[in-house]
Amino acid sequence: MKNTLLLQKAYLNGSFIDSKDTFTVINPSSQKAIGNLPDLTVKDCKKYIQTAHKAWQSWKDVPVGERAALLRKLYNLINDHKDELAEIMTLESGKPITESLTEVDYSNSFIDWFAEEVKRAYGETIPTLSGNNRMQTIKQGVGVVAAITPWNFPLAMITRKVGPALAAGCTVVLKPASQTPFSAIALAKLVDEAGFPKGVFNVITSKDSKGIGKELATNELVRKISFTGSTGVGSTLMEQAASTIKRISLELGGNAPFLVFDDADIDAAVSGAITGKFRNTGQTCVSINRFYVQEGVYEEFSKKLTKAVSELNVGDGLNKKVQVGPLINEDGLKKVEHHVKDAVDKGATIATGGKRIKGLFFEPTVLTNMAKDSLIAEEETFGPICALFKFKTEEEGIQAANNTPFGLAAYFFSQDVHQCFRVAEKLESGMVGVNTGLVSNASAPFGGVKQSGLGREGSKYGLDEYMEIKYICFGGN
Ligand code: ADP
Fold first, then answer.
1. Which of 166, 262, 459, 462 sits CB 3.0–4.6 Å from 445 for a disulfide?
2. Cα of 209 to ligand 1 centre, how many Å?
3. Rounded to whole angstroms, how far apart are CA atoms 379 and 387?
């Protein structure tokens, strides 16, 4: 198939542009080059911001119905090009093609959701307490939005920001991850075809993440930064954005716990564990990182999980039978090796897997008898490793789960309804999966507490992130 969306260009003011400097994007599965993209500079970034600012002057006044109709056109185009988008995603991220196809639908659900939700961005009429004033509020788009996105969901992390931003009447400068920029350019092609006005959506491709990030975070024409990525970079951006008091949304790292209680349905827990752990080879911010299993079911759960994990099919994502792809790069793989070695050095047993296969592929792994002070207890591994810790009481399990500076997703399995409410309320995380390993969808608020971030994406709250409330007071007489 000739992929008409695979373009070696950046996108500015409604044009696909080149640059004399380029950088190469690698397929992590074959470690071969996919193509080259413009390596744009901080100077280019200033031009991008000015362009988005100019486009905002008219885009903000386009009636909501027209903005929603354009998003609807984009939604249809994404549906029409599902296979091409999924192929690009698998080529540049390595994720299995079945997951890429699911991600295209998931990405598009944000376009659908926000095209509708913006029609209900209601203001209020406020009762007058004394005198004759009349008071009301309206909601308006914040202005130019800078979106910085990671490589693990090359399309969904973009639409989750761009969908509400465009719906709200904001214009966007998007800086996608340099590992997976082709998905962003493919989206730009469809935005272009849908007929959005020039300059409303722009994609800057660059290897200079630091320089571009700093410009986006400090330029006073940018009114909002929306970032998904590591906590360290999020913290830097927050500091940089402080100088111009920008609005900021941060979706950062997690260290998700998964608790299995004594009366859990173990088969369901194993299936939830596979979904919550192995999606995108364990490289998602809501991936389970720490398994806490109550002592009464520890043996049964670890045995059944080990069997299921040893049956996973690892390989090149374009093969439809593959369930687990490669790690994104050598650094990612080294981190996984380091975490496994640390766990084993501290007494863990390898129940299955445990080593690199070849290239960037690592065996799906189960480690049992994890020591409490293992690195995996503290940091995200971002790889196909299930690390099993044992606990005795509910209180001990919750305490271990909460013993982290992060709080994005948490999961647990139990069939005791009272326990379900108790534990869900006590877990310190923005999202809790009860008897499920999958929580994300466009109509629900996605986001973290503690050092996992600020703000929510998706849901009715995801639109508010891109809108200001304006209060208007009409004097009476
Ligand atoms: P990950 O570990 O998922 O790659 P990063 O936080 O490093 O997480 O990257 C997420 C996004 O942030 C990518 O688009 C990356 O290019 C970008 N990025 C990396 N460093 C910086 C920085 N100092 N300022 C702004 N953006 C950055």
1. 459
2. 6
3. 12
pLDDT in tens, 223-281: 999 999 999 999 999 999 999 999 999 999 999 999 999 999 999 999 999 999 999 99
**Ligand 1 atom at minimal distance to the Cα of residue 212:** 25
Q: What is the pLDDT of residues 180-223, one digit of tens each?
A: 999 999 999 999 999 999 999 999 999 999 999 999 999 999 99
| Ligand 1 neighbourhood includes 236 CB (under 6 angstroms) | yes
39 and 205 Cβ atoms separated by less than 8 Å = yes
d(CA 88, CA 72): 22
Work out the angle at residue 328's Cα, subtended by the Cα atoms of residues 312 and 281, and round it to the nearest 5 degrees: 25
Ligand 1 close to Cβ of residue 174 (< 6 A)? no
CA of 202 to the centre of ligand 1 (A): 18
**Annotation marks residue 251 as catalytic:** yes
Instruction: Specify the pTM.
Output: 0.97
Question: Predicted ipTM?
Answer: 0.94
Q: Please report the domains of the chain, with CATH numbers, ordered by start residue.
A: 10-252+452-474 (3.40.605.10), 256-434 (3.40.309.10)
Would you mind telling me the total number of residues written for the chain in this entry? 477
Residue 148 CB–ligand 1 contact under 6 Å: yes
